[in-house]
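We both want to read discrete structure tokens more fluently, so let's practise on a single case. Would you write everything just below, so we can both look at the same thing?
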Amino acid sequence: MSTYVLVHGAWHGGWCWDKVVHLLEKEGHKVVAPDLPGHGRDKTPIAEISLEAYAEFVCRVLDDQFEPVVLVGHSMGGAVITQAAEYRPEKISTLVYLAAFLLKDGEMLKQYSADDPESLLARNLISSEDESSLTINDAALKEIFYDDCPDEDVKRARALLVPQPAAPLMTPVRTTKENFGRIRRIYIACNHDKAIDPSIQENMYTKSPCEKVITMNTSHSPFFSAPEELVAHFLSI
């Protein structure tokens, strides 16, 4: 059996993986789906949150595991797992990017968002007065993230989403071939994604080739809309 560590994306928390956790555990696997600093139940102040803080937190989770894990990152979580992989390559058997930002050394998430004219997300961001965090126009939330998701999941997400610290989005990842570059990578693309356009996803996994690219005919959040199919892909990896 394998150990899966599931890293959520911006605004979300470990709660978004609940259906996936249940299905993987049902198959006998160990699953860890933590809240990144400042997300979910974690109350770290926004001023203390950085990409480095995210990565160091994931490293501590990896250090607690007894075997190399399958490390999954969704959306912004892709940048987080990339940086954590640079620091702990020996703790990871496979990196899985789910509709995620797969950044090369020196790239930051913000530059891809700026180059994504098809994304509904960039048009619906609301910056805090001090520009330290971002929220999303509630009227567009379902279409951006959950277009094909059950209403009960959308309702729960609305209640649990938190402001997203801006600093991690504007910080470049730093990686080397010797560490991050030696780890097996898989990309799962979402063909009906309105948060990260499929063309942007293709651009990223083309520039940073993966061992395998899997496509799903879902929105940005297949952990809600197609958890059984998503878990089947995880198991096939």
Notes: The beta strands are 3-7, 30-32, 69-74, 92-98, 125-127, 133-136, 164-165, 184-190, 212-216. Residues 72 and 96 are 5 Å apart (CA to CA). The domain at 3-236 is CATH 3.40.50.1820 (Rossmann fold). The mean pLDDT is 96.
